[in-house]
Automatic annotation (TrEMBL):
Its main location: membrane. It comes from Brenneria goodwinii. The lineage of its organism: Bacteria, Pseudomonadati, Pseudomonadota, Gammaproteobacteria, Enterobacterales. It is found in: Cell inner membrane; Cell membrane. The chain crosses the membrane at residues 12-33, 45-67, 79-106, 118-139, 146-165, 171-195, 216-237, 257-278, 299-322, 334-355, 362-382, 394-412. Belongs to the polysaccharide transport (PST) (TC 2.A.66.2) family. The gene is wzxE. The keyword Ribosomal protein does not apply. Pathway: Bacterial outer membrane biogenesis; enterobacterial common antigen biosynthesis. This is Lipid III flippase.
Length: 416
């Protein structure tokens, strides 16, 4: 399946997922204002981190090796057994940590312990997130864009209903718990579709252990750990820095434009793990890899640039439709944020080459580079310009990072 076809198959599911996410944010914005959206930002960041860590961070590795071994049952069986064991072990470990450390975690996220029970609920919800991502990773390894799309659509709609119930019954605390349920409930359609659309049975999901495979997947765990302590920490630091110098309302303004940014970037990058990661994993010739990267950039960059321009033109409509009048200050942030988005997507194409080849040292270098750039620009620009400075720091980070990636890739091509 080509990148264009994978994009078409995933477009519908991504639109549904984006729509659900925007409905969730709209409810938060109308009910709790910029301050409520701002405080929820750190919690949403934690959910994103758990989407990686709760499954030992091996999901890209599972996609990579399922793509390589899907026609070799003798190698696929120990791979899946080891993956299930790792996911189970890590998610149980995180559950214990979140139950017993709920108060300090809540204090770090919100500045108080009022929502510690939400953290305890998250201890169990994250196990659903872990297995949902595992089943989706297996579908992606089989390059089943249709199955992946159906799982995301079904899970998103179920999650929206669950969020609405939590929001109505539990107020702000319930809304926070509902944010975590949205990705967790994808596990229900994902497991059904995986069993129906692949040759796998429930026996394939029996925990097992293979030291060699665990070692290979361990590289992806280290990548995930680095991801968890770099960019998410940087974004939490930026929110806390902005709240310290200005207010949580200002955090909510920046969080609002970031939410729109994240929403349409999901649509742009949805096909990356469905098509790009397994494709790059299967290619071994450097010249072929180089051609695939260039071809992907030629397809992706014009698309994201065009979509970004449309978002900029419709920024006032987006604020009115997705938020409220309290968020009108967002309109000044769009240009900076959207330029950063274009650079970010371009850089992430290169990033998938690093993941596909499990190049641990290069991956760690890229994560640390983004962290240093983001924190450096943030400490310079946020005290000076507030929420606008946060968007400027984001743009500057990914402009520099994209140029660095291009430079390294040019050297790689010359050596191919």
């Amino acid at each position: 399946m080509s990148l264009a076809k994978a994009s078409i198959w995933t477009a519908g599911s991504t639109l549904i997922k984006i729509g659900v996410g925007l409905v969730v944010v709209k409810l938060l914005a109308v009910a709790f204002g910029p301050g409520g959206v701002g405080q929820a930002g750190n919690f949403r960041q934690l959910i994103t981190v758990l989407g990686v860590l709760s499954g030992a961070g091996i999901f890209n590795g599972v996609t990579k090796y399922v793509a390589e071994y899907h026609q070799q049952p003798e190698r696929l069986k120990p791979l899946l057994g080891t993956a299930v064991a790792l996911v189970l072990g890590f998610s149980l470990l995180l559950a214990v940590v979140f139950v017993f450390a709920a108060a300090p975690i809540a204090n770090a996220l919100f500045g108080h312990e009022e929502y510690r029970d939400v953290i305890r609920a998250l201890a169990f919800i994250q196990m659903g997130i872990a297995y949902a991502n595992l089943f989706l990773a297996i579908l992606k390894g089989y390059r089943d864009a249709v199955g992946n799309a159906l799982a995301v659509i079904g899970g998103s709609l179920i999650g929206l209903v669950a969020y609405w119930l939590c929001f109505m019954l539990g107020g702000y605390a319930g809304a926070l718990a509902g944010l975590a349920l949205v990705p967790a409930l994808v596990v229900l359609p994902a497991v059904v579709l995986m069993l129906r659309r692949t040759p796998l049975s429930l026996r394939a999901l029996k925990p097992a252990w293979d030291n060699a495979i665990a070692g290979h997947l361990g590289k992806f765990t280290l990548m995930a750990l680095m991801t968890a302590v770099t960019l998410p920490v940087a974004y939490i630091m930026m929110r806390n820095l902005l709240a310290e110098h200005y207010s949580w309302g200002d955090v909510g303004i920046w969080q609002g434009v970031s939410t729109i940014s994240d929403a349409y970037l999901q649509f742009i990058t949805a096909s990356f793990t469905v098509y790009l990661l397994p494709t790059l994993s299967r290619l071994t010739d450097k010249s072929a890899l180089s051609r695939e990267i260039v071809r992907s950039l030629k397809f992706v960059l014009p698309v994201v640039a065009g979509v970004s321009f449309c978002v900029w033109l419709l920024r006032d409509v987006a604020i009115w439709l997705l938020f409220s009048r309290e968020f009108i200050a967002m309109r000044e942030l769009f240009a900076w944020q959207l330029v950063g988005d274009v650079m970010k997507v371009g850089a992430y194409v290169f990033g998938y080459l690093v993941i596909a080849k499990a190049a641990l040292r290069f991956y760690l270098l890229t994560e640390v580079s983004q962290f240093l750039l983001l924190t450096g620009f943030a400490h310079w620009l946020i005290p000076m310009n507030g929420a606008l400075g946060a968007a400027q720091a984001y743009m500057a980070t990914y402009l520099v990072y994209f140029l660095l990636c291009c430079s390294v890739f040019i050297i790689y091509r010359r050596r191919a």
